[in-house]
């Protein structure tokens, strides 16, 4: 058995599965739009929505097409971004995602995974949606980063210096999640670190280990995902805004309705979302965006089940599409109300 199994370089992979020039232009426009929403130059609400993980690219593309139609319908009020997550960080162990284990049997065919994963990302980008991605393994980032318009550094890696350095180099807005225990101060440290220039080891486009140089990412922000207790409520968001302001940082926040904010119970996501929508509709400016875990069918299946259903999550339970579409409408109404409130206040002044 080989103790190493080389996989394609970022340059070879992107040559095999390129983003055509029109898509490259679209990705850079999406990144700017998202940064504008975070900075309030664009008054819309950011909505990052999609499966916990992609295990079946064909079914996930079906989901992406439905979402793209909805995104067009709500485009006056929402900037909808597809969760296109192909790597899963595990608390202890479990399926690590399509990129690293495409055959879902622990064989670890990373070469096959990055080919299938990149093909999925390029096809998903063709729907016109911006793509969201959690960068779990910094080594794999150069293989996919050009397709991504919004990135997360997750709760399990937000304290890691290599991930903070990677975020400083990534060419898109990056959300730093609070830690599993709910620590916001450590996510704030991550935001500060990623805003600075770094020189760090990484993989170059030619596949060689190289010194990567970053200028610092100007669009790093906080994502509240709950911890041992939820943190989507008004008091927690206000506390986070104050902590950010005290650190001299960007104080617009994305709130994840899933994970620690729903106790991983997908049925609680609409309850969290309703709480956020109420506050947005009343004019709350701190809430720049909302995240939802949603897929074709409602719930989850055991990853060891065979055959696996293509339309049902094999990681966290998701809201089914039928329950997701009305939530997008609820968020669009809230965003429209917020803009009306803000306009009235401006006129009064
Ligand atoms: O978002 C997905 C999961 O929450 C994450 O990968 C961790 O899952 P685990 O706690 O089951 O390992
Ligand atoms: C793993 C995820 O989130 P978190 O880092 O908040 O657990 C995720 O969004 O898939």
UniProtKB/TrEMBL annotation:
Keyword Transferase: yes
Biological pathway: Metabolic intermediate biosynthesis; chorismate biosynthesis; chorismate from D-erythrose 4-phosphate and phosphoenolpyruvate: step 1/7
Highest taxon of source: Bacteria
InterPro entries reported in the protein's UniProt record: Aldolase_TIM, DAHP1/KDSA, DAHP_synth_1
EC number in record: 2.5.1.54
A GO term, aspect molecular function: 3-deoxy-7-phosphoheptulonate synthase activity
Function: Stereospecific condensation of phosphoenolpyruvate (PEP) and D-erythrose-4-phosphate (E4P) giving rise to 3-deoxy-D-arabino-heptulosonate-7-phosphate (DAHP).
The protein's name: Phospho-2-dehydro-3-deoxyheptonate aldolase
Native species: Actinomadura soli
